[in-house]
Design brief:
The chain is built from one helix and nine strands; from the N terminus they run αβββββββββ. The chain has 125 residues and is mainly beta. Residues 8-28 have low confidence and may be disordered. It binds copper (II) ion (CU).
Length: 125
C-alpha cells in the first residue's frame, strides 16, 4: 500500500518527533493465548461432553476427535466448523465475544442418529 503524500509527510514528522507511529491500543480485553484446553469426543450419536461453559473474551482451545466415524462440530455463532476424525486431534481456538447460549451440532452425516447430535456452549461474563 502506498501512503498518500500528506500521510507520508505526517508519518515522517511523527517518526522524527518520536511518536509511537502505528501503535494501536487493543480495545478488547480478549486474551489470545488459550487459557484452557477442552477435549471433545464425538461418537454415534453424541458429543462428550455435550455442553461446555466458556468465559466471554477468554480464548480456549477445543481439541476435537472422534471415537468412530468422521463427524464434525458446527457452532455457527462462534465461527466453529471443524471435522472430527477418528484417531486425530483437530485444534480450534475459540474466543466468545458475547455471553449467552449457543447451539452446535454435527455437520457431517454420520448415520441414522446424526440429527440427534447436539452441542451447547454457555458463555458467561
Ligand atoms: Cu453426524
Amino acid at each position: 500500500m502506498k501512503l498518500a503524500p500528506a500521510k507520508f509527510v505526517l508519518a515522517i514528522a511523527a517518526t522524527c518527533l518520536g511518536w509511537p507511529l502505528l501503535a494501536q491500543e487493543n480495545p478488547s480485553s480478549a486474551t489470545s493465548t488459550p487459557a484452557q484446553t477442552i477435549t471433545i469426543h464425538a461418537k454415534k450419536y453424541e458429543f462428550i461432553p455435550a455442553e461446555i461453559t466458556l468465559k466471554k473474551d477468554q480464548t480456549v482451545k477445543l481439541e476435537l476427535t472422534s471415537d468412530d466415524v468422521a463427524h464434525s462440530l458446527e457452532i455457527p455463532a462462534l465461527g466453529v466448523n471443524s471435522v472430527m476424525k477418528k484417531g486425530k486431534l483437530t485444534d480450534v481456538d475459540v474466543t466468545p465475544t458475547k455471553a449467552g447460549d449457543f447451539k452446535g451440532k454435527c455437520g457431517k452425516f454420520c448415520g441414522f442418529g446424526h440429527e440427534k447430535m447436539h452441542f451447547l456452549v454457555h458463555v458467561v461474563n
